[in-house]
């Protein structure tokens, strides 16, 4: 249990509600900053302003999935309040206070280093990324269905990048009867894709692989769908770029060529905030229990 552990949740969206529920059930003492407009109360959790939090009594700090912006502000779906995390504030927390965030940002990394506090980036963990790929796939299917006039069944679908998300996408589109072709730079990834029964190619050959494309899903966070590649792709194609911003597509050129191309960050939070929140909540609970039940500060 997390009895008497003081955990501050700093902003976030509907996903944090699952985190709050989980930590309340584990008997933690929660301070919620940036939740004043949330029409719901939790036993064991109080809604406060940033300046009401006693920094030197904080055992752990939980940030939104997006971390902070360039100036240290966190997103607050349930408040109009500006909530900012600063190195000066962090310095006042006890040394064992760990910061948990979905992803990190340059600002957050710098502030944490200045204050001597460690940051755990939840979305860098394989388990979180793989669980998160499930709602991402469902969101991708929704976007593809909404933005095309063909069935996925029998469509020519290209998936770029066979990482944690690309693998789940490949399996889902293949299972729905699409003609899936996967591009990656690792031979072992391509071998796995072939074992799954889909076509493969090396990314270096991408411009020769797009001529028959109908739907292209990119998961690579680097510019791969260049103007040169897009110039060979049929103009009626649909590109869904799910990679982190700014994505891997030359959107300007795609538009010029008449290719419908969209970037869609945050699909899990959009289509399944409860599931996406539970994924984070379960890992958060595991990490906090491990940390405090060992009595130390392993992460
Ligand atoms: P991942 O496991 O790291 O997969 C990324 C893939 O891209 C890997 O195969 C990686 O290969 C490849 N890659 C990276 N840089 C490359 C480059 N310069 N050239 C060629 N290949 C490159 O990540 P993931 O968890 O699947 O996530 C994929 C992306 O989707 C990330 O940007 C993530 O933030 C984003 N995402 C978005 C959503 C959403 O809602 N839109 C949801 C989940 C994830 P290597 O292993 O060789 O680097």
Q: What's the total helix number? A: 10
Mean pLDDT: 95
Q: Strand tally, please?
A: 14
User: What profile does the largest beta sheet have?
Assistant: 6 strands, parallel
Helix content: 25-40%
What's the Cα radius of gyration?
22 Å
Q: Report strand order across the widest sheet.
A: 3-2-1-4-7-8
Q: Outline, from the CA principal axes?
A: elongated
Bound molecule types: NADP nicotinamide-adenine-dinucleotide phosphate
Overview of this protein structure:
With 299 residues, the protein is an alpha/beta fold. It is built from 10 helices and 14 strands. Helix 4 (126-147) crosses helix 5. It is elongated, with a radius of gyration of 22 Å. The model has no long low-confidence stretch (mean pLDDT 95). Residues 129, 132, 136, 161-166, 184-186, 203, 219-222, 242-244, 264-268 line the site of NADP nicotinamide-adenine-dinucleotide phosphate (NAP).
Features of this protein?
six-stranded parallel sheet, 14 strands, 10 helices, 299 residues, binds NADP nicotinamide-adenine-dinucleotide phosphate, alpha/beta, elongated
Outline the fold blueprint.
Elements: E1 6-10, H1 15-25, E2 29-33, E3 45-48, E4 60-62, E5 73-74, E6 83-84, H2 87-91, E7 98-101, H3 106-115, E8 119-121, H4 126-147, E9 156-160, H5 164-175, E10 179-184, H6 187-196, E11 199-202, E12 215-218, H7 227-230, E13 238-241, H8 251-257, E14 260-263, H9 267-271, H10 273-293
Parallel strand pairs: 1-2, 1-4, 2-3, 4-7, 7-8, 9-10, 9-12, 10-11, 12-13, 13-14
Antiparallel strand pairs: 5-6
Helix pairs in contact: 1-10, 4-5, 4-10
Bound molecules: NADP nicotinamide-adenine-dinucleotide phosphate (NAP).
NADP nicotinamide-adenine-dinucleotide phosphate is lined by residues 129, 132, 136, 161-166, 184-186, 203, 219-222, 242-244, 264-268.
